[in-house]
C-alpha cells in the first residue's frame, strides 16, 4: 500500500527525562471544571454533567518547563486568552469505564494551556454555533513534557497556577475540580471510545485573561511540572 500524498507526521510530546515520545491521537477538553472559572464565564458552579470539546492532535505544541519556548500568536483574533490546565495522558483505552477503574487508564500527566481565541468563541456562542474556531486552531495546546503516573502518582490535590510577565494571573488547587480526573475520564468514555495516545485537558481555575505578543507565560501544577512560553 502507498499513500497518494505524503502522510502527515505523527503528533507527539516528549516524555520528561528521556528521549521517548508520547504519540498524540486525540485531544479532549472538559469545560468549566472549576467552580470559580464557571462563575467568571457566566456559568453555573453546580455539579452539572460535564461537557467536552476537542482540539486536533497536531494542535499539541511541546514547550519547555523553564526557558520560554517561542509560541506563535494565532491569526484572526484580537482577544487571545490563557487557560492553565492539568493534562492527563491515556495509556489504555476503553469505553464506559467505571470511575473506580478510570485512573488505571491514565499513563501520565503534563501541564498544558488551553489557548482560546475568546472573541471568536464569543461570536460563535452568540450565533449558536460550535466553539471550534475559537479553540481548535494551530498550536492551540501548548503542553509540557509528560511524566508517567508511576513517578508522579495520581494527584487529587496540589497547586495549579499561571504567571504572565511575572504577575500571578491564575491560582487554584486540583481539589477544586468539580469533576475529578477519574470522573472526567469515565464520563468522557461514555461519549467516545478512548484509546492510547488520547489527551484530556482537565479544566482551568479562575483568572483567565488576555495575552499578546511579547508576553511570557509561566505556569505549573504541583507534583507534575512547569511550562514556559513567549508569545511571538
TrEMBL record:
Record-annotated Fumarylacetoacetase-like C-terminal domain positions: 27-231
Domain of life: Bacteria
Lineage of source species: Bacteria, Pseudomonadati, Pseudomonadota, Betaproteobacteria, Rhodocyclales
SUPFAM superfamilies, alphabetized: FAH
GO molecular function: acetylpyruvate hydrolase activity; metal ion binding
InterPro entries with a match to the protein in the record: Fumarylacetoacetase-like_C, Fumarylacetoacetase_C_sf
TM region positions: none
Pfam families linked to this entry: FAA_hydrolase
Signal peptide segment: none
Record key words, sorted: Hydrolase, Metal-binding
Protein name: Fumarylacetoacetate hydrolase family protein
Amino acid at each position: 500500500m502507498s499513500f497518494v500524498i505524503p502522510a502527515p507526521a505523527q503528533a507527539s510530546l516528549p516524555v520528561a527525562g528521556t528521549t521517548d515520545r508520547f504519540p498524540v491521537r486525540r485531544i479532549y477538553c472538559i469545560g468549566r471544571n472549576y467552580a470559580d472559572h464557571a462563575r467568571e464565564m457566566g456559568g453555573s458552579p453546580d455539579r452539572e454533567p460535564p461537557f467536552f470539546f476537542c482540539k486536533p492532535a497536531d494542535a499539541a505544541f511541546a514547550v519547555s518547563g523553564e526557558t520560554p519556548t517561542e509560541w506563535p500568536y494565532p491569526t484572526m483574533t484580537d482577544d487571545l486568552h490563557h487557560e492553565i490546565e492539568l493534562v492527563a495522558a491515556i495509556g489504555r483505552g476503553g469505553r464506559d469505564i467505571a470511575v473506580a477503574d478510570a485512573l488505571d487508564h491514565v499513563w501520565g500527566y503534563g501541564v498544558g494551556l488551553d489557548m482560546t481565541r475568546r472573541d471568536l468563541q464569543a461570536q460563535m456562542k452568540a450565533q449558536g454555533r460550535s466553539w471550534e474556531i475559537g479553540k481548535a486552531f494551530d498550536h492551540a495546546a501548548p503542553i509540557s513534557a509528560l511524566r508517567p503516573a508511576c513517578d508522579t502518582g495520581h494527584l487529587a490535590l496540589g497547586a495549579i497556577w499561571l504567571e504572565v510577565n511575572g504577575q500571578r494571573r491564575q491560582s487554584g488547587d486540583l481539589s477544586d475540580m468539580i469533576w475529578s480526573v477519574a470522573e472526567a475520564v469515565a464520563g468522557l468514555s461514555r461519549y467516545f471510545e478512548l484509546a492510547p495516545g488520547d489527551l484530556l485537558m482537565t479544566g482551568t481555575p479562575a483568572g483567565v485573561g488576555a495575552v499578546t505578543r511579547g508576553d511570557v507565560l509561566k505556569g505549573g501544577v504541583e507534583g507534575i511540572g512547569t511550562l514556559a512560553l513567549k508569545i511571538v
